[in-house]
TrEMBL record, chain A:
Chief subcellular location: membrane
GO cellular component terms listed in the entry, alphabetical order: plasma membrane
The name this protein goes by in its record: ABC transporter permease
GO function terms (MF aspect): L-isoleucine transmembrane transporter activity; L-leucine transmembrane transporter activity; L-phenylalanine transmembrane transporter activity; L-valine transmembrane transporter activity
Keyword ATP-binding: no
Transmembrane region(s): 12-35, 42-60, 72-93, 156-173, 202-224, 236-265, 285-303
Automatic annotation (TrEMBL), chain B:
Claim: ATP-binding is one of the keywords in the record: yes
Entry keywords, A to Z: ATP-binding, Nucleotide-binding, Transport
SUPFAM superfamilies: P-loop containing nucleoside triphosphate hydrolases
Pfam families: ABC_tran (PF00005), BCA_ABC_TP_C (PF12399)
Listed InterPro entries: AAA+_ATPase, ABC_AA/LPS_Transport, ABC_transporter-like_ATP-bd, BCA_ABC_TP_C, P-loop_NTPase
Lineage: Bacteria, Bacillati, Chloroflexota, Ktedonobacteria, Thermogemmatisporales
The UniProt record lists the keyword Repressor: no
Protein name: ABC transporter ATP-binding protein
PROSITE patterns per the UniProt record, alphabetical: ABC_TRANSPORTER_2
Domain called ABC transporter: residue spans: 17-267
UniProt-recorded Gene Ontology molecular function terms: ATP binding; ATP hydrolysis activity; L-isoleucine transmembrane transporter activity; L-phenylalanine transmembrane transporter activity; L-valine transmembrane transporter activity
Taxonomy, superkingdom: Bacteria
Species this chain originates from: Thermogemmatispora tikiterensis
GO biological process, alphabetically ordered: D-alanine transmembrane transport; L-alanine transport; L-isoleucine import across plasma membrane; L-valine import across plasma membrane
Amino acid sequence: MTLFLQLLVEGLVIGSIYSLVALGYTMVYGIIELINFAHGDIFMMGTLVSLFMVTNVFHLTDVSKMSLGGMLVMLVVTCLASIVICALLGVLIERIAYRPLRNAPRLAPLISAIGVSLALEDIAKAIIGPNPVAAPYLVPLVHYSIGSVDITNTDIIVLVVALVLMVGLQWLVTSTRIGRAMRAVAQDREAAALMGVNVDRVIAITFLIGAGIAGAGGFVFLLSTNNTVFNIGFELGLFAFTAAVLGGIGNLVGAMLGGLVIGLIRALVTYIPDRDLPFGLPHGGVAWQDAVVFAILILILVFRPTGLLGQQLAEKV
Amino acid sequence: MTAEHEQAPQSTRQPLLELKKVTKHFGGLAAVQDVDLAIYPQEIVSIIGPNGAGKTTVFNLITGIYLATSGEIIFEGQPLKKASPHQVVQRGLARTFQNIRLFNNMTVLENVLVGEHLRLKASILDAVFRPPWVKQEEEEARRRAIELLSFFGQHLVDRQDEYVINLSYADRRRVEIARALASEPKLLLLDEPTAGMNEAETMEAVHYIRRLRDELHLTILLIEHKLMVTMGISDRIAVLDYGRKIAEGLPDEIRRDERVITAYLGKAATADRQTWQVALRPQPEGEANNHHE
Amino acid sequence: MAMLVPSQILPQTGETRRLLLKWVIAFLVPVLVFTLVWSGEAILNAALLAIFFPGSFSIAAIAAGLFMLLFYGIITGLTGYLVAADSGRQSLLDLWISMFFFTVVPILLIYITANLFVGLAASVVVWAFYYYGRRLVRRFRPPAPLPPLPSLKVLDAEMRATLLTRARLGSFWFALSFSLIWLLVDLLFYFTGQYGQASLVFLVWILLRSVLLPVAGWLLGSLGGLVAIRHAVPANGNGSNGDRAGAPVSTRRLRLLSATRAREEARDLVPNDLPLRSTGARNFYLLLLLALLVFYPMIDPFLFGPGTDSRLDNYGNAGYYVILALGLNIVVGFAGLLDLGYVAFFVIGAYTWAMVGSPQLTVLTGIHINPDIWPWLFWPMLIVAALIAALWGVLLGAPTLRLRGDYLAIVTLGFGEIIPIVVQNLDKYTNGTNGLTGIYSPAFFGVHWNVSTSEPYYYLILVLIAIVLLANLRLRDSRIGRAWIAMREDEIAAAASGINLTRTKLLAFAAGAFFSGIAGAYYAAKLSTVTSGNFSFSDSVIYLAMVVLGGLGSIPGVVVGALAVYAVNVLVLPQLDALGNDPSSIIYPIYTHILQVIPNFSFSNIRNLIFGIILVVLMIFRPEGLIPSTRRRHELHHTEAEGVEITSLDTPPGAPGFESEMRVE
């Protein structure tokens, strides 16, 4: 039971990072129906920017020697830098690789996105090399025990940041002018354009916000795991994208939910013992993590073809 | 105008298609409610009604695109039950769409060939190995497709290799009908076959719809907004309003039906009756009102 | 109709001279460059040596010589055809310049880089600049636009005879001038004593050749002329029966077609404004390509020197990418179902042969098979592997039928992730991450198969590609292919035309997976080892890139796309470091410059960066792919023109539509 609860907490933490990245996938998909394969790599760039900020700008070696104020300044500045740079990167990518393809066949931007993804990974590899890079602790690690479950302060930070960003985004989309414009463009680009919405600008802003959130995701990821690698964006991005689809692609709440569900599944699967079927799986659950996630995804989609919270798109007959 | 089979008492014959209390709900909204309708062999029946009356929904129910919430659809004495769209085609119903749904990046000929899909036998292995009978079947299919196109005149035959997207609106409608004919239907459902056509094209459409019945012995159910057209070619007319059938009868009866007039013009518009009567006059007149969007 | 005076229709007699000049020079230059600067001469000489000097007998050299004769023959015939087929509207200079860029430049670049793919890649770069330059020039001096069907003229019997004569003259003059120049050069060599001891044979050959070539030219010209006549617009072609296969295109029908469509149709016809792109010319190209592919292993040593085996090995690998791309094209290109997990079927195919064709079979089942017979099992297992993959294709397809668009994509993606994990974790059967080794090569009469000789695999993959290609072409033009394309275009209309969406989708998945299974079995046999770690999502992505880059739904496009992606990714980019370090190469100076700025720079570190940029740039400039299917090109140009659809006002607002309601079981 303890182990179960412990895994639950771990699942929630990693799940909320998936959710943050999934938001970007789902926003972009919602507005231009593109699977933005480069989004995971923007997240990866977020981890790199955060790493660069703490090691090269703040010259962090041991956080326990820092004053509380200094640490807070470092965290906030690092997070903001990550958000801003990722947001700009997102807009830049949209401008270069996707905007010229607005009216192209559907799969052309997809391939373009794959190209950007490959390019970003190689750039990252050129910067940090092919191996995982460890980061120093960004906050002094504190363990809390609730019952027998162990929670660290970084876990709590991750959850809080994720929650704040998600609520903020939800508010932005439902209650602001730009949010309304985004929804209008997502519904019907031509009609929105006729109504005076600057479609290009709205799409750029969508990329800006989505990539910014991925930047924040990159920051909290570094904070909670203390390492990064050039292809983390690819792997994590795959699950984030899966989360977006699971929740119902184009649906913000769905993306959050999907992220949490996948985080939980991945955590709980490790619980499966190393035994032959039917009492376990050869090599234990860890070896099957990804397979189980996708198997459950397929099962869910069989019964809910448009995801957990997906709306049925109406097609006129 | 009145075809001779009109005289035969309908009750003695078995209807080709029969709708019994067909109802369709979308969520809480009843798009079609308790619609009864019977269509007899070689009849031309029109469904008319204001926008949003549920006409196309009826078509979608008949052709298996939507599943009726309740009620029964019977074709040749056998219920269609839960037949999916292609099974419906197999039974002998073919349709066209209001917003022409052709395969835009295929040629005219290929579009009609797709319509012949069910008639052809070649399986995937036959397609790869292409034994002589498959070659023959393909040739035969092409010959038939061209024959169908020639129903609308040499002019479509000449354009058999054109992508349909390059055709005029009226020609696209014709190709869509040819594609529907290719499946050898007994009942043809035409969803607004003259929408978007000019006066001359409309008259031509009326002409060939009648020929479809007279020469190919088809039964035709059509949705039409141009009352001039419906009044002209229908043997019978059914009127839908808010998903319910409010009237059914001969064109002359419909023209005089109070409920129909109210449904079309609204209660306040009694003053417009004169116009209405003019609009419904069966003879094609120069400025007959086009009640379509 | 036949009243038209020939002189008005075909270029006049004075014109004939101009046409001869035009085409003879256009082909003489590249052929001479190839022959004299490069290997044409050497290959033929080697063949002569092999025949007349017993010590140096070699079948390969004779075969290579045979290819060269074929090569010269096809080019001569082509020249005749072009002289006959040309409507004379394309200007001399235009043609010569483009011929120079598209033949001489690649020949020279391949010669300089001594590497087929690096040379071709460099040529592509040059072509890009050429196109850019041409566009600039045209902006200043726009050429008179070609009307859609300017040359669409009816030809009667007399004019056909003129065509035939013209074709003969074309080939004859080409052959004559070629042989004269060649003779001069060879005599020069001869009298400077370059040919040494074998000189007499060569002298006889040179003289004989000079006489025979013009004669052969005359004969081949007749051939070219016959091809041209086959495509000539017939005088009495009313085409009223409209049978595309048999009856010729009628001029009247062509005039009724829209400009774009008519231009496509008119490509088949003679006289032709752009004869190089006409169907008749294409037959010659195909023949040439076929000859090249068949004889390639023999010519390769003459062209690129030692290392033939490793090059053939690469082409053998490129081959299964072609099969994979063709298979994926059925799913994505024809049926319009986005598949991001195509690698799964490849894995299944590979493991099928790996588990049956390796000692693992004995380990698992205890069955012992005579090692002489074992390799023969490859052939039936090739089919079995494909069938098993197809079965899995159906199994994957089944749950996805209700899904649309990108939901489908994610399920296929998931499947592509699951399969390698399953293979990896069921190590009891598959040997997990250690993989399976000692997989048998196929066996065939009198062929020595072995992992280190690539030639048998080269021919095997050639045959497999030919079969898959033929199957694809036939499928496309069949009832099933039409159903796939119809489904891609509009599912609802397809269903309403009697197409069973369930079946059709499953068939697409099965057919795609089938070809992937073939590729997989071939891969296992060629590598003789498979490891689960070698397959991942990024492979699926690469396959997809091949298909989209080549041109969705276009069979030639997909083949080119697969070769291009493979070449760039495997043959060109990894070569860049070696090339950069080689002082004689063209990129050496650039490389050294970069090294001065970034000391530990290496192209291998930025392979994906370059590849990624290439993908983005190509998509931006050619979103429809390198060789789009005519349909697709069309679609692209009409997306905007299509405008707003008349929407069905009969659907109640907010009503859940077709998606949720349509029943596909």
